[in-house]
Amino acid sequence: MFSPQGPSLRELAVQALSSVERGYDLLAPKFDHTPFRTPESILGATREALAELGPFGAGVDVCCGTGAGMEVLQPLCPGRSTGIDFSAGMLGQARAAHPDASWVRGDARALPFGEAFDLAVTFGALGHFLPAERPALFAEVFRALRPGGLFAFPIGTPPPPTSVGHWVTLGFDVAMRVRNAVWRPPFVMYYRTTPLVAVRDDLVAAGFAVRAVPLTPLGRNSDGSPRCRLFLGRKPA
């Protein structure tokens, strides 16, 4: 499915009926051949925006998956670059692709770091956390950053109700809620649980000074809003 190298429909079904961790262990060998991997356009736009805010020392990719975020971290962080994820399968793929980075298996809600990094990023992972879990996640990233450190992540602007994207994401989230209501273990992955105002409020509550900038290379929606914004949370020096 998606490409000759991607997972089959059966493999995706097995993954979707597994836990999040087990599902990504199963998907890991073919993950980079699916649309779920963060696109190069988003990685490039994020890297360009962050290049104006450095220099940085050490960097960490939270919920790193197969390591796509290293395309952002390694050019910007001359110190060590680290990825953390709870899927051993995804980390295995990341380690093979970027053997010069450090890889840690762990839960982002209990990061095994303390004031160790100048830059933290995450890509496409917030949908794996329920809204009630997001404040604790942000507090852990805050704790892992050195004073003055920066937490950065892109979020797509919700598509307008008249767009196909609106109904696709709504349909996906409804299907996942039905699946999780009738099947265990749950598979937490939602597209509509990260409203921009709520994300900003949770960052502020964690202690960050927050601003969001449009990633202009990614274009605009039909209503003029940017398709994607880069949230920037700065830990006070």
- What are the secondary-structure elements, in order, as H or E? HHHEHEHEEHEHHEE
The CATH homologous superfamily of the largest domain is termed Vaccinia Virus protein VP39
Q: Give me the number of helical elements.
A: 8
Average per-residue pLDDT, rounded, comes to: 93
Number of strands: 7
Main sheet characteristics:
7 strands, mixed
Order of strands, main sheet, comes to 3-2-1-4-5-7-6
Q: Judging by the overall fold, what is the CATH architecture of the largest domain? A: 3-Layer(aba) Sandwich
Structure classification? alpha/beta
Could you tell me how far the N terminus lies from the C terminus, measured between alpha carbons in angstroms?
Answer: 48 Å
- The rounded Rg comes to 17 Å
Strand content: 15-25%
How many independent structural domains? Answer: 2
Helical proportion, percent range = 25-40%
Give a quick summary of the entry.
This protein is an alpha/beta fold and 237 residues long. The protein contains 8 helices and 7 strands, in the order αααβαβαββαβααββ. 36% of the residues lie in helices and 18% in strands.
Verbal overview:
This is Methyltransferase. It holds the Pfam family Methyltransf_25. GO terms for molecular function: methyltransferase activity. Keywords: Methyltransferase, Transferase. By secondary structure, the protein is α/β, with parallel strands linked by helices. The protein folds into 2 domains: 36 residues, no CATH class; 160 residues, Rossmann fold (3-Layer(aba) Sandwich), CATH 3.40.50.150. Helices cover 36% and strands 18% of the residues. It contains 8 helices and 7 strands. α6 links the parallel β4 and β5. It is globular.
